[in-house]
Write a structure and sequence with these properties.
- It is a single chain.
- This protein has two domains: about 50 residues, no CATH class; about 40 residues.
- It is built from three helices and two strands.
């Protein structure tokens, strides 16, 4: 959405129900106040309320959020795996060095 929503505006949009469909999709039922509609129309330069536009913007916002969360989770997993691999190799390298040093002593 093109403008940030402040805390008061967020409270003007309430999820009433989430319906899980048999095909794996979900429907979200909202209670939308007139104040939220006014904010939304102003935000998107609309003269009148548009359910279609609201749905479009909401779907895009949810998709963007999921994409962002997925990327953050992927990056966190990569970083974890990198550190895990470093620690595994660090132990193996220590063992190789210790073995080599003990062989030199013999």
């Amino acid at each position: 959405m093109s403008e940030n929503i402040n805390k008061e505006d967020r409270q003007l949009l309430e999820v009433i129900e989430i319906i899980d469909n048999d095909d794996g999709t979900s429907e979200i039922v909202f209670e939308i106040t007139d104040e939220f509609k006014d904010w939304f129309k102003k935000c998107f330069g609309l003269k009148r309320w548009s359910n279609k536009r609201f749905q479009k913007e909401l779907v895009e916002a949810i998709q963007d959020y999921i994409e962002k969360e997925t990327k953050q989770q992927y990056c966190a997993e990569l970083e974890y795996n990198h550190h895990l691999m470093e620690s595994v190799f660090e132990e193996e390298i220590k063992e190789i060095i210790e073995k080599d040093e003990s062989e030199k002593k013999d």
